[in-house]
Amino acid sequence: MNKNKKWYHNRFVPWIVPILIIVLWQVLGHYNIISSTILPTPLAVVEAGIRLFKAGNLQANVLISTQRALIGFLIGGGIGFILGLLSGTISVFEKTIDSSIQMVRTIPHLALIPLVILWFGIGESAKIFLVALGVMFPIYINTFNGIKNVDHKLIEMGSVYGLSKWELFHDIVLPGALPSILVGIRYALGVMWTSLIVAETIGADSGIGFMATSAREFMQMDIVVLTIVLYAILGKLSDYIAKLFERRLLRWNPAFVDKE
User: Fold this and answer.
1) Do residues 84 and 73 make contact, with C-beta atoms less than 8 angstroms apart?
2) Fewer CB atoms inside 10 Å of the end CB: C or N, the chain?
3) pLDDT in tens, 132-188
4) In what residue span(s) does the ABC transmembrane type-1 domain sit (predicted)?
5) What is the dihedral of CA 110, 114, 120, 122, to 10 degrees?
6) What contacts 79, CB < 8 A, 6 or more positions away?
7) What percent of the chain has a predicted confidence (pLDDT) above 90?
8) CB of 193 within 8 A of CB of 234?
9) Which domains, ranges and CATH numbers included, belong to the chain?
């Protein structure tokens, strides 16, 4: 019984507040307390989604945006992870790379949009570059800090037992840094969608951002709200997938509590 209660609590309780907000939103819109020109009702947004889905526009644009986000994430995340490993494990790289990266990361990457347009134009490369640049820094910082915060006593103990440098890294350093790295990945996933939202409003001819821009020009508020909901759903789905990886990769960690 206690197990069932815990499962119910973890599965349904987090949805209570969102459901209440949606119901209140629908009621206020239905009785014109909130004008549809300001904020359409949830039912109107759902109807717009069904209409676009039947036309094939919805799934095509969602797929394009997802591809852009994933490509940018893999490129930027891979670079950030590798640089974090190098700076965290090799003192020469820490001295030569870390200070420069810490300086550059203070510049808001979205402020570079005019420069990015001059470099890449308004095509796919510009959008992917902005996403990659946005996700690189959170993953770099958390990888670097995770490695630096590994208990040095464990490393010394591994050396005493005769572990090679690769075995020390694979069996002690990387697992010890993994919780911090996963936190960086979850944070970077949020930055990924934020970067893409802005990138897709700049000269895009496809994607969710293009849908939002086109709908804004024709005052189609239901589609504008739908695009916002789509970004929220994709962001939540990304975070959920990241949590699944956390549960699988951190089962060995006694400090990790599986709440499912």
Assistant:
1) no
2) N
3) 999 999 999 999 998 888 887 887 787 777 777 787 878 888 888 888 899 899 999
4) 58-242
5) 90
6) 132, 136, 140
7) 20
8) yes
9) 57-249 (1.10.3720.10)
